[in-house]
Amino acid sequence: MTDLGTSNSQTTTSPRGKTNLVGCSQSELTMVARQLGEREFHAKQLWHWIYHRGVHDFDSMTDLSRNFRSTLEDGYALRRPLVTREQTSNDGTRKWLIRFEDGQEAEAVFIPEDNRGTVCISSQVGCTLNCRFCHTGTQRLVRNLSSSEMVGQFMLARDSYGEWPTPKTARRRLSNIVLMGMGEPLYNFDAVSEAISILTAGNGIAISKRRITLSTAGVVPDIRRCGEVLGINLAVSLHSADDDIRTAIMPINKKHPLKDLMAACRDYPGISNARRITFEYVMLKDVNDSPADARALVRLLREIPSKINIIPFNPWPGAPYEASSMEAMIRFRTILTDKGLTAPIRAPRGQDILAACGQLRTDSKRIKKHG
Ligand code: SAH
Questions:
Q1: What 3-state DSSP class applies to 50?
Q2: How far is the CA of 170 from the centre of ligand 1 (A)?
Q3: Cα-only R_g, the chain
Q4: Among 309, 308, 293, residue whose Cα is nearest residue 349
Q5: 37-59 b/e (C-beta count within 10 Å ≥ 16 → b)
């Protein structure tokens, strides 16, 4: 179930035979330099050009010898995943439909806010979880994305805003990353881990781990590793404090019920009042939005430093649920805030371009593989 059969290898070779260096780790670049008979420190320069400067061709790498540049040119490429469509919402949200080298598609989204800008990236094409309120779950085709494909999503977002070379933290428009797009990131742990190490390396893209959040539907056995190995923030798609309701809307709850999920949250490495777990709660009319549901949520989260994001349900064609009324959402929130919990109602973003949570779904299943 969790092994979707794609390799985590960073060096992907395209049908045109050129190995892509975008997504390569420092040690993979060192191997490339070595194979080409170059000294190892040139790999550091390569890294800098790729991830700090964001260049698209070897010719721009002016401190490498002409000879090295032309051998690179012959056998290697610097490709991001292909953007087949870019749409910008009237609220500034921007969405990219992306095609990978095998023709599979996924989406990435940029969400500007007052004091930060968040790039939401996908970790899989499609999703195996089948959460009943999520559009992505209706997509049949699923595969893991490689770390190169994940890093590539962030890089194409930077391309789109011309944000190269990597600016100082305070001046960045694209300041944060959430692994909250299509797919379940904890089912693709190794590639996510590799992507995080590239995205956070100080001499490259340099996004701090504190500005990266991984959202999971509750893959309990991997939650601890997420804190220990990745060291990034955790968001949990909770959506109900009752096992029966949660199982009805999220089949994963059968395998990993609330008791286990909450134990993993309590033990999440590094959590404190300064570094809380975010719980996402999509408001579904007459399903999980009553005052009793809110009180159950207060009880469930009692011992966990938490922030609750109350998310208005974003409808999609054929969805089996309706959005809760604003009145029901405010009533729900008040019960939480009266008990001292932080619980903003998240404003839906990018709705006019179907870029909001749970609306991401590509038509890749209709695209035939090229022979
Ligand atoms: N698999 C991961 C990450 C992808 S989902 C996870 O489940 O957390 C990202 C967020 O969007 C989740 O909180 C999900 O519950 C929410 N979401 C999915 N469909 C939605 C919809 N139709 N309206 C609002 N939020 C939705």
A1: helix
A2: 29
A3: 21
A4: 309
A5: ebeeebbebbbbbbbbebbbebe
- Alpha helices by DSSP H, listed for the chain, are 26-35, 41-47, 66-75, 147-161, 189-200, 223-225, 243-249, 252-255, 258-266, 291-300, 326-338
CA distance 309 to 345: 6
Q: Work out whether strand 117-120 and strand 105-112 pair parallel, antiparallel, or are unpaired.
A: antiparallel
Residues 6+ apart with CB under 8 A from 221: 256
Copy the structure tokens of residue 115.
Answer: 């004091």
Q: Is the pLDDT of residue 363 over 70?
A: no
Residues with CB under 6 A from ligand 1: 133-134, 180, 184, 215-217, 237, 280, 282, 311, 313-314, 357-358
In three-state secondary structure terms, 44 is: helix
The structure tokens listed for 251 are 């089949």
Just list the catalytic residues. 107, 357
Banded model confidence at residue 135, pLDDT cuts 50, 70, 90: confident
* Residue 317 to residue 305: CA distance in whole angstroms: 36
Query: Which residues, listed in sequence order, are joined to residue 312 by a DSSP beta bridge?
Result: 283
pTM: 0.91
Q: Are the CB atoms for 157 and 113 separated by under 8 Å?
A: no
| Distance from C-alpha of 113 to C-alpha of 2, rounded to nearest angstrom | 34
Provide the residue type at 92 as one letter: G
**pLDDT the model gives residue 360:** 59
